[in-house]
Amino acid sequence: MSTNLLSTSAAIGFGGVVQEYLWNCENQQLRVVYETLGKGSPLLLLPAFSTVSTRLEMGELARLLAPHFQVVAIDWPGFGQSSRPSLNYRPEIYQQFLEDFVRAIFNTPITVVAAGHAATYVLQLAVKRAAFSRIVLLAPTWRGPLPTMGASQQIAGMVRELVRSPILGQALYKLNTTQSFLSFMYRRHVFTDAAKITPSFIEKKWYTTQQPGARFASAAFVTGNLDAVREQSDFLELVQSLTVPLMVVIGESSPPKSREEMNALVALPGVKSVVIPGSLGLHEEYPAVVLEAVQDFLFSPEK
After folding, report:
1. Distance between alpha carbon 106 and the CA centroid of its chain, in Å?
2. 65 phi, psi to nearest 5 deg
3. Which of 19, 130, 159, 255 is the most exposed place for a label (fewest CB within 10 A)?
């Protein structure tokens, strides 16, 4: 495992230094891309898992944080500019990746800001060892889209295998990543301001979904195969086991089921929380509002 500087000509980012972390997974070496911006104490930005997951959704928030922190944002394995092999993507892979990456890149406990489905992985690592000094969760989720809609593990598994299949899977994936469908999904539960869902914005999202191998990790997320816990009680138990400060940011227009889960989380003792405009993509849609909401928590002296 190592880090290497990527040539700027190959780098598409938010203005930082783009590097790669070479990570061994199931006898394969994966190239994981991450970007660093700013100086100061380290802060790790983890994008949400989704069909369009990329560190660029954290780009504006990274730029806002960079005057105060050395910000590091990653593309998860299987997403963004990172390698997208046809692995059986599952929680164990991402649990091990996050632990290895944090250990390799940082030499002290760090602040972490994680969106969506990254929440559970952060909490599990925080409970396992002293990796983080404080945690911010942005619109946290623990259950993938199909299970949230009520699909059984059996049905979800069948869908996942269909999408993984060579010909039919590629066709199904393309149908579910058309620009019109992506626009529909953004309007439904990701953004709240339709004016921000421009054709050029959607085209960039569509582009990341069309990279070779993109359907494998995406299918795992959508069908719940990246759910690191299976019950709400297990998710809440992780929070109750924390020994570091935690703050949760909730979008006031979050989908009802997701909002119920977030409400249960912030009802726990010791959890700081705030409700701001937005939905599941609040970190990308309202980065300045996010920073304003969490800055006192981030900048307060560590106890």
Report:
1. 19
2. -85, -25
3. 130
